[in-house]
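debug: dumping io for the single-chain case to check the tokenizer round-trip. Nothing else runs in this session.
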Amino acid sequence: MKNSQKITIISLIMFSITSIGITFWYISDHILMNFDTKSIIKILSQVGLPAGVITTLMFLVVVFLLKRIKNLFLSTLSMALIFILFIFISYWFILHMIFYHIEDKESFVSSLFRF
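debug: decoded output
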């Protein structure tokens, strides 16, 4: 199996696990609400999928930079900056996820990009 196929398979697995995991996390945080199949699909599409996209893109950026940057100092510096960026994005995402209610008319992604 080629290296690009391995990265694609790992990315798809990471995307699906993250999407499902964040969906279950949202449901467990808002346990007092009544959930049916329609609302779970809405949570998956509005909250789970953006989380999967963010983590998968961060993984692909790390893999790309590790392959392209040969200098050890630059590689370490870029990984440290990406790690700090990932912590900031995770905090920002989780904070919005905790306070977002699925009944709102505004979508999760638009509330995520609103400052």
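debug: round-trip ok. DSSP finds four helices and no strands in the chain.
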